[in-house]
Design a protein that fits this description.
This protein has about 350 residues and is α/β, with parallel strands linked by helices. The relative contact order is 0.17. The chain has helices at about 15-25, 40-50, 60-65, 80-90, 105-115, 130-140, 160-165, 175-190, 310-320, 325-345, and strands at about 5-10, 30-35, 55, 70, 90-95, 120, 145-155, 195-200, 205-210, 220-225, 230-235, 240-245, 255-260, 265-270, 280-285, 290-295, 350. It is globular, with a radius of gyration of 21 Å.
């Protein structure tokens, strides 16, 4: 089959753009990146010079008739306006996580894409990596029997992260929308939609002293108002229950736990911010000894393969089917995040209406 080559325009020239550009140019042969824009044009010009691209304003990029897919790599607070602008320019859109700040915004974008018969896709696409595809196959093969519960725990160091990445101080870039979104996406990919949840959320340090030399504002007070600690209990539509906990006020970054408990065994998975971590199958032998087997890998994405969701979306467009990193899935995850926020205020479990 002769695959169509999709010409890509990229909005955003921040830190994440380098891996996207590199992967599009070296790994995904049916994608051709032709132009890049940024809020500050000089940032786009630097990336354009480095990777042999054309730098332009976002308005110029969206006017280009040859560009069919726009990739949005800007902070989440800007997603709604940029995605809407791109859809109105009759471009398919793939955006970095989270799809936008609110489900009200997301609902409008999904309707607009449907009306214009365009495809809207959304990261994180790490669930398409070897780790979670191997786990998905193990579940479908019944290797751990019926899964009744799960336990997920995440930790990060916001003293370091908010100093190194100032966008984490912006609205919509707290622990939920910036990072828990990886775990919720992986969880729902494996086990299906969430039905209800309850949560407690804290923002213990509204300001802090920047401890990282050679960063802007080193040794000065910086504002860090976003949420950084979340504990939530979730019930999925299949009856499975579990907990997800994130603490961004710890010394160590990404000492993650992701465990699925089944009637025949236990799966211990890697960090959903990465693609290729091993999957451990824990079983009990006839002598009641625990065996720990690393499962054979399924899939071809084990490195930092960001952009695979974009590549899969391009194939889905050509084949006229839904992409795996779909806007519907991203909407559902955002609804879960909003339900956690409401629950933390109300003290009650909150229902999730959407499915995907």
């Amino acid at each position: 089959m002769n695959h169509k080559i999709f010409k890509i325009g990229m909005i955003g020239a921040g830190a994440i753009s380098d891996i996207y550009i590199t992967n599009i140019q070296t790994k995904f042969k049916y994608l051709e990146l032709v132009a890049i824009s940024a809020n500050h044009l000089e940032n786009a010009e630097k990336k354009a010079e480095k990777y042999s691209l054309t730098a332009c304003t976002t308005e110029e990029l969206l006017r280009r008739e040859d560009i069919e897919i726009v990739v949005v790599l800007t902070p989440v607070a800007t997603h709604y306006a940029l995605i809407k602008q791109a859809l109105n320019a009759n471009k398919h859109v793939y955006t970095e996580k989270t799809i936008c700040e609110t489900t009200k915004q997301a609902e409008e974008l999904l309707k607009l894409a449907e009306e214009k018969k365009l495809v809207l896709g959304c990261a994180p696409d790490t669930f398409l990596g070897n780790c979670f595809q191997t786990a998905k196959a193990a579940l479908e093969e019944g290797k751990i029997g019926t899964v009744h519960s799960f336990a997920i725990s995440i930790n990060r160091n916001n003293d370091i992260l908010t100093a190194m990445f100032p966008f984490l101080r912006q609205p919509g870039a707290g622990a939920l929308r910036d990072y828990m979104v990886y775990y919720l996406t992986a969880l729902t990919h494996l086990l299906g939609p969430v039905e209800k949840c309850s949560a407690m959320i804290q923002s213990p340090y509204l300001t802090r002293i920047n401890p990282v030399p050679n960063t802007s504002g080193y040794n000065e007070e910086i504002s860090t108002p976003n949420e950084s600690i979340i504990v939530s209990a979730l019930q999925l539509r299949n009856g499975c229950i579990g907990t997800i906990h994130e603490n961004n006020e710890t010394l160590i970054i990404d000492f993650a736990e992701f465990t699925l408990y089944g009637t025949k065994g236990i799966l211990k998975l890697g960090n959903p911010n990465e693609f290729g971590n091993p999957v451990h199958l824990l079983e009990v032998s006839s002598k009641f000894e625990i065996t720990d087997t690393v499962l054979d890998t399924i899939g071809e994405y084990s490195e930092n393969d960001r952009g695979v969701g974009l590549a899969e979306m391009a194939e889905a467009i050509e084949e006229k089917k839904k992409p795996l990193a779909s806007a519907e899935m991203a909407y559902h995850v955002l609804e879960v995040i909003e339900a956690m926020e409401r629950s933390s205020i109300s003290g009650k479990a909150e229902e999730i209406c959407s499915v995907f």
